[in-house]
User: What shape does this take?
Amino acid sequence: MNTLRVGVIGCGSIARKRHLPEYEANEQVEIVAVCDLLPERVQETASKYGAASYTDYEELLKNPDIDAVSVCLPNYLHAPVTIAALNAGKHVLCEKPMATSKEEAEEMNKAAQESGKTLMIAHNQRFVASHQKAKQLIDSGELGKIYSFRTTFGHPGPEQWSIDGRNSWFFDKEKAFIGAMGDLGVHKTDLMRYLLGEITEVGSFIDTSAKENTEVDDNAVCILKTEKGVIGTLAASWSYVSGGDNSTIIYGEKGILRLEDNPNYSLVAQYKTGETVNYELERIQSNDKGGQTQSHVIDHFTDAVLNGKIPLITGEEGMKSLDVILAAIESNQTKQIVKVGVSEGKALTH
Assistant: This one.
């Protein structure tokens, strides 16, 4: 296979601003079909990319010319559509969070294993240049023992990002399952697992304080502990009204790493010796600057499928990051520290 023929299911903002532009920019990809429940939306998208249009994803999956699909749908549809696609013999790139429960995630991974097809979850933080450089520095031992961390992902909310604005599914509890923690927090759980290893325990406060007429959370602060004993905090928020924050700070024995925390440098290393190293790297992209059209997610997925490689974020990896979110939900409900991987994954309640 020299060309990956893809279908994109869901023509909302995530498809329009990331998946479709990145597929179009990849010379090894042909956009064969797009699908959306709204005929006008799907026809407009199909016309733009010269693709076939569908309003029923099951019909799209019957198309033998499609090798792989992107699932760009509300959270509650990730599992059923991904499983159907895998069972139809398609490779799948699924948006995050991969599912709304551990059981759903397990079914998705089972379908991938039985079909022999690639399942990748679209976590993009691992591909950010400063994050990859930080991992090199940490793994090399240059920071010595890691003591602590703090990571944050916040912006004004999906009403400025979603194609449907304030009427978006993001604010519908039945469709979203979870708000800022699932939208933004899961990205940071995946990043911290990538940088520091598995997270084993979680304590959290998750609340709705900034948005009206919705039951999904818009503010969350978690305390995380890794299997190596490193403790730190994670904040996810839709209430940063004057702009976004997508920064991480790692505190180590020999120095501190500041990731996406400086307006001029993607990574700043401050050493105990007094030395400071400023790294000029490709900056992390944000939604308010035209979208993440170079997230490297699509290129990585395409390379994995065409060359038979295991993607960096498999379904199993996606499930481990989801497990942290589920543990945070349970911690907020029970007001107790929760061990990751044993959460029942019940819907968030206040």
